[in-house]
Amino acid sequence: MAQGIIQDAYLKAEHAEALNASYTNAQPCKYLVMENFFTEEIANDLFDNFPSIQDLNVKRKSLNEDKSEDYHFERWHPSFAKIREAVSSDEWYAQLSRITGIEGLHTTTDALGSGVHQGKNGSYVDIHIDVNMNPKLGLWRRINLLVYLNKNWKPEYGGDLELWNKEMTECEVKVPPTFNTAVIFYTDDNSPHGYRKINIPEGESRKSFYTYFYTKPGEGVSYRDSKFVSRPDDAASKKLATGVKETLKINGKKLLKFIGLKNLDFQDKN
Questions:
Q1: Nearest Cα to 257, choosing from 222, 217, 227?
Q2: Which residues, other chains included, contact 168 with Cβ-Cβ below 8 Å and sequence gap of 6+?
Q3: Per-residue confidence band for 135, with pLDDT thresholds at 50, 70 and 90
Q4: What is the pLDDT of residues 90-121, one digit of tens each?
Q5: Is this structure's pTM higher than 0.85?
Q6: Mean model confidence pLDDT for the chain
Q7: By C-alpha distance, which of 49, 27, 65 is closest to 186?
């Protein structure tokens, strides 16, 4: 049940046409920013009861990222289960399809369904293109939903969601990760995204809820792994290291997929 969890302005069918127009005409990719996405009571519950970063079991730390995540909702406050149910309801599926023009959207219950991200001081995720499929379930990833849950977030903290053009010559959109701000975007080669290193006080963190939506694969759609790409202002040494690392990772996963391994997320220790 999405009613009472997601604001009516984003849930009701009569608002879909205007939301679709904003989404469809956006640049550099199809995206939509939705302020005050969850109802006030739910959003406050999520902020007040967000799991500590120590309790998130997946630690992603490498040359290109530093963040924690998890997807075990049974470990957290009941409000997290409520929002997962809301974004996986028929009501929201229908509205999301009206907004995006994509029929048959649905999410999953694994790590590539819904969960939370959190980053402490110094956290960052370099610009990347998302994996295009859930390889274990054989589903085509189409839409990302991110909802930020950071009260009193200041511009000097950084951490804006950056949406770059496909050519990686310009960051065309920055979305501050402010409280109860949601973003949906179409995830393909035209939506490189990430966030720069944050600089926050002790006790603060960058918090978000995520959900990824899928359809059955279209004709000609095959698995393509996620890929980090360099910003123009990255150091030459980092550009080289990122290129080498990503080439080795992508080719290695292609081989593992060829021999029949379906679970390709080796950082998931849940």
A1: 222
A2: 127, 192, 229, 230, 231, 232
A3: confident
A4: 999 999 999 999 999 999 998 889 999 999 99
A5: yes
A6: 93
A7: 27
Q: Could you tell me which residues come within 8 angstroms of residue 51 by beta carbon, excluding any fewer than 6 positions away? A: 70, 75, 76, 116, 118
| CA proximity to 263, closest of 253, 252, 248, 251 | 253
User: How many angstroms separate the CA atoms of 40 and 118, rounded?
Assistant: 21
Q: How confident is the model at residue 260 (pLDDT cuts 50, 70, 90)?
A: low
pLDDT in tens, 25-45: 999 999 999 999 999 999 999
Q: How far apart are CA 210 and CA 108, in angstroms?
A: 12
Taking residues 135-139, what's their average pLDDT? 91
Q: CA 82, CA 164: separation in Å to the nearest integer?
A: 33
Residue ranges covered by each domain of the chain: 8-258
Residue 229 neighbours by CB under 8 Å, 6+ apart = 126, 127, 128, 129, 168, 192, 242
In sequence order, what are the beta bridge partners of 197? none
The candidate with the shortest Cα–Cα distance to 144, out of 86, 188, 82, is 188
CATH code for the structural domain at 8-258: 2.60.120.620
Residue 267 carries which side chain, given as an amino acid letter?
Answer: Q
E strand intervals along 26-160: 31-34, 58-62, 65-70, 114-119, 124-129, 133-134, 139-148
Name the phi and psi angles at 228, rounded to 5: -80, 140
Average pLDDT value for residue range 129-136? 92
